[in-house]
Every structure is written in structure tokens, then in C-alpha cells.
Automatic annotation (TrEMBL):
Residues 221-476 form the CN hydrolase domain. The lineage of its organism: Bacteria, Pseudomonadati, Bacteroidota, Chitinophagia, Chitinophagales. It comes from Chitinophaga varians. Residues 5-212 form the N-acetyltransferase domain. GO terms for molecular function: acyltransferase activity, transferring groups other than amino-acyl groups. Transmembrane segments: none annotated. InterPro entries: Acyl_CoA_acyltransferase, C-N_Hydrolase, C-N_Hydrolase_sf, GNAT_dom, UPF0012_CS. This is GNAT family N-acetyltransferase.
Length: 504
């Protein structure tokens, strides 16, 4: 006969089944079962936190919970203290932690993943209530077999390494709980655990501390990439008209970011073509701060964050390749290309910057790397460890070989750093500008490679060598899920005990 399994909230009518299951679940703790008035009090205080699993209508297990203001208790508490000595007057609907006070399944129904269903239901409740996480004190019932030859810490480490099986702790580890602390005398009558317990915690990756404030970080971010056609504009004003056209167009789609390519203002170098290449690019650098200020005006008026591509700038007589983040709130920051290409060094005397940093925006944490920078994995890893969610890469490449170096490395950065990478490039040619003859580009948005993302790892891409825009949505929540539940977790599994990437 087939079984029907249901997860639902406990009712007062469930008590007899509940007591029978609990008595059977704890044969080594005689008399330790919940009284009927206690269950009724929990149901009255917090009905959605009392969860039952039924088989063919019979309650065979449960998960009981309260909400607490965890700072009032801290990590050094007992079971009696956290439950208000079983009065549950510690329950606070405005608290921040879902505290698990009981989980059990009747022994006749174990091995059917019923406890996992209870835990999943509790996690869902935690997410729905926007609580920071779940905390519980966990028994270590097999510890009595090893107490004469190892400490509780050693025992827990061996359970985690799967050298020892513990029916409670092994299950907690498999359900993404971590041991925050070892508690002594948490349940003094638990002789099997020798009075010790593990303080367990599960983090809600969807928790938003300021979820009700007006200014908040978006979960879905819209990116607009400008694949820029190189052409002779004749003047700075004509150039800026084309810039504004693309910002306007991308803004009309409700984009949060618009991204321009590397050195997309190179047509302005024609004004200085009578000079050698180094002199010409320094001449063009005189326009950079003016262009930045215009970008900032457009960011505010079109309500879009702008990655300004990159432009040459002279700082203390040294030539750099600089990109600006112009936020729609009127603030701006800058990033200087770290790795000039050999051609930039040889032809222009370009020098690299020295700062690796993540930028905060109203759409999460972002990084900027310029073209050749993305071909070095170490800076991207440092940015990822600082919380980067989207990496923007303005680039300019002349041949398909050069383009593929940028493309393949950018896609690798997305996979290894579990982030989105957006690249935007220039197309066409500039016959009247020395050292800027040909451009090849296909602008793209790359994703990590896992089930929640496109199988190709490509969210969107342009037609090669065609002036156009690419607009794509990226979901930052999917990154949180990947960090915690991904098939592989490259950021989590880094062997920091063996190697590290450290900025000097």
C-alpha cells in the first residue's frame, strides 16, 4: 500500500500521535516528552513554527521552533535559558533568529528522509520571515562511546571528516549546519552526550537586514553594453552627442548600468595626429576630465550607473589608462588599468595603476578591470574575496586572437570567482589615427557554469563587429545560491591552507 507524506503545522488534536512518536524517538531519555499544555502554548505563541510530518495522516515527527532576539542570549546559554525555563516567554516575533527547540522522527519511519523534509520546511519558514538564520543546540549521542579517549572537539572534527558517524551531528552537517561552539551543560540530563552539545547555525543567504528601507540593493540587475563603432567625429561635442545617444537608448530599457569600451574616445586623437603616438595620446588625455564630468551629468539625468569605458589621463606627468564609475546619485570613483599591454608601454609609455578595490553601488558590489587586466586571475580573485558580484571589463582588441584572449579569460573569471562578467568592446577602424587601425569585438555577459545559469555560460552576446547595444538581466540571488548550494563551490573550496592570493 502506497504511503502519503505531508508537511503541515501541528494542531492540538495531534498531541497523542506526537507523544507516542517522541517517547519512541528518545528511549534513552525516559519521561522526557513534551506535555500537552506545553505543545498548546507553543501553538498559540507561534503556530507557523510548529511543523509536523505525517505518514498516512499519522504524525510521526515534528520540528518545534521559536523566534528569539539572539543578542540577548549570545552563544553561552543553556536550553532552559533559551526557552525561558519552558515558558517560551523568550519568543519574540520581532527577533532575528529562528531557534530550533526540537526535531525528532519516530524510529519506525526513519530512513525515509522525513527529517530532511522537516528541516527544509524550517529553512523555508526562516526565509519567508526574513530571519538571519537558524540556531539550535544539538546532541552528540554517540560521544559516550569515545569520551574516554577524545575531547568533544576532537569528536566533532572526526564526525565532520566522516571518520565517525553520529546520528544527530552527521545529519546536521549534511543539512548545511555548521558548529558555532561547544556547549557544556546545555542539557545536563543527556548522559549519552556527556552533558555536551553543539551550538549549530544555518545562515539564511536571502536575509536582508534593511529590507524595508527605501534605498536597497536590487536582486535583478539590468546591464547595457555599448559596442562602439570607431569613426571620425570631428569634434568633442559631436563625440559627446553619440555618447548621450547610447546612454539615452540604454536608459530607456530601464538599465542599471551602461558600459562603454576601452579607449572608445580614440577618434579624438585625430586632432593630434601631427604628433608622435605618445604625444597624440597625451593630447587626447586633455579631454578626459571633461568627458568624465559629462558622464556624471548623464548618470544623474538618465538615472543609470555608467562605466565610462577607459580613457588616457596624465597624473603627475605619468600616463595612465583610467576608467570611471559614475553613479546615478552623483558620486564617482576611478580605476586605473593595472597591466598595460606591451604595445601601450612601447608606443605610448603607459604606466600601470596599483589599486585593487571593489566599488559599492545601489545594485551590489562591482569590480572594474580594463582589457589586459582580465587575463591575470589574481586581481579578480582578490575582488571576489571582497564580495564582487559583477565584473565589468571595457576592452579594445585589434585581431580575433587578441579578442579571444580577453573573452576566454573573462569567462574563466566568471566561473572561478562565481560572478557575472560583462565585457564591452570597440569595432571598426580609424584610418586617420596612428596606432589605432583595426578593432574586433563581440561584447558579452558571462555567467558561472551551473544549473541555474545558461548551459553555455553566456547570458547575452552581440553580433561581432557591428555597432549595437546588448541588454541583459543578471540575478544576484542566483550567485548567493551558487555560493551555498552549487554543484562545485570554487570560492568555498579554495585551499587556503596550501596557497593564498594576497595583495602586497
Amino acid at each position: 500500500m502506497s504511503e502519503t507524506v505531508e508537511i503541515r503545522n501541528i494542531t492540538a488534536a495531534d498531541y497523542l500521535d506526537l507523544r507516542e512518536s517522541m517517547v519512541s524517538a528518545y528511549p534513552d531519555m525516559a519521561g522526557s516528552y513534551w506535555g500537552e499544555t506545553t505543545i498548546q502554548r507553543l501553538i498559540k505563541l507561534f503556530p507557523e513554527g510548529q511543523i509536523a510530518v505525517t505518514v498516512n495522516g499519522r504524525v510521526v515527527g515534528c520540528a518545534l521552533s521559536i523566534i528569539v532576539d539572539y543578542d540577548k542570549f549570545g552563544d553561552n546559554h543553556t536550553y532552559e535559558q533559551i526557552t525561558g525555563y519552558y515558558t517560551f516567554n523568550t519568543h519574540n516575533p520581532k527577533g532575528d533568529i529562528l531557534y530550533g527547540i526540537e526535531v525528532f522522527v519516530h524510529p519506525d519511519f526513519r530512513g525515509r528522509r522525513l527529517a530532511r523534509r522537516l528541516y527544509d520546511a524550517r529553512k523555508t519558514l526562516c526565509e519567508q520571515l526574513n530571519l538571519e538564520g537558524i540556531v539550535a543546540g544539538g546532541r552528540i549521542p554517540n560521544y559516550e562511546k569515545y569520551a574516554d579517549r577524545m575531547t568533544p572537539r576532537e569528536y566533532i572534527e572526526k564526525v565532520q571528516d566522516k571518520e565517525i558517524y553520529d546520528p544527530t551531528l552527521t545529519f546536521q552537517f549534511s543539512n548545511d549546519f555548521t558548529v558555532k561552539k561547544i556547549l557544556k551543560n546545555y542539557l545536563p540530563n543527556d548522559e549519552a552526550s556527556k552533558g555536551f552539545a553543539t551550538l549549530l547555525q544555518w545562515f539564511n543567504i536571502y536575509y536582508e537586514k534593511d529590507s524595508d528601507t527605501i534605498r536597497y540593493n536590487k536582486s535583478t540587475v539590468r546591464i547595457g553594453l555599448v559596442q562602439w563603432q570607431m569613426r571620425d567625429y570631428g569634434s568633442l561635442e559631436a563625440f559627446m552627442q553619440q555618447v548621450e545617444f547610447f546612454i539615452d537608448a540604454v536608459s530607456d530599457y530601464g538599465s542599471d548600468f551602461v558600459v562603454f569600451p576601452e579607449l572608445f574616445n580614440a577618434p579624438l586623437m585625430a586632432e593630434f595626429n601631427q604628433l608622435d603616438p605618445a604625444g597624440a595620446i597625451r593630447g587626447m588625455a586633455k579631454h578626459t576630465e571633461t568627458i568624465r564630468d559629462r558622464f556624471l551629468e548623464h548618470a544623474v539625468s538618465y538615472n543609470v550607473n555608467i562605466i565610462s569605458g577607459s580613457m588616457p589621463i596624465v597624473i603627475d606627468e605619468v600616463l595612465h589608462n583610467i576608467s570611471y564609475l559614475c553613479r546615478r546619485d552623483g558620486t564617482w570613483e576611478q580605476y586605473i588599468k593595472i597591466h598595460p599591454t606591451p604595445g601601450e608601454v612601447y608606443s605610448w609609455g603607459m604606466k600601470g595603476g596599483s589599486e585593487i578595490k571593489v566599488f559599492d553601488t545601489d545594485c551590489g558590489k562591482i569590480g572594474i578591470q580594463i582589457c589586459y587586466d582580465v587575463e591575470f586571475p589574481e586581481p579578480s580573485r582578490i575582488l571576489a574575496e571582497q564580495g564582487m558580484q559583477i565584473l565589468f571589463v571595457p576592452f579594445m582588441t585589434d585581431t580575433q586572437h587578441a579578442y579571444n584572449r580577453v573573452r576566454f579569460c573573462a569567462q574563466a573569471r566568471a566561473i572561478e570567482n562565481e560572478c557575472y562578467v560583462a565585457i564591452a568592446g570597440c569595432v571598426g577602424n580609424l584610418p586617420k589615427v596612428n596606432n589605432m587601425d583595426l578593432q574586433y569585438a563581440q561584447s558579452c555577459v558571462f555567467t558561472p557554469s551551473d544549473f541555474n545559469f545558461p548551459v553555455t555560460g553566456i547570458k547575452a552576446e552581440s553580433t561581432p563587429n557591428t555597432e549595437m547595444v546588448v541588454v541583459a538581466d543578471v540575478d544576484l540571488v542566483l550567485l548567493k545560491e551558487l555560493h551555498t548550494f552549487g554543484s562545485v563551490q570554487t570560492m568555498k573550496d579554495i585551499r587556503n591552507d596550501l596557497y593564498q592570493v594576497v595583495k602586497k
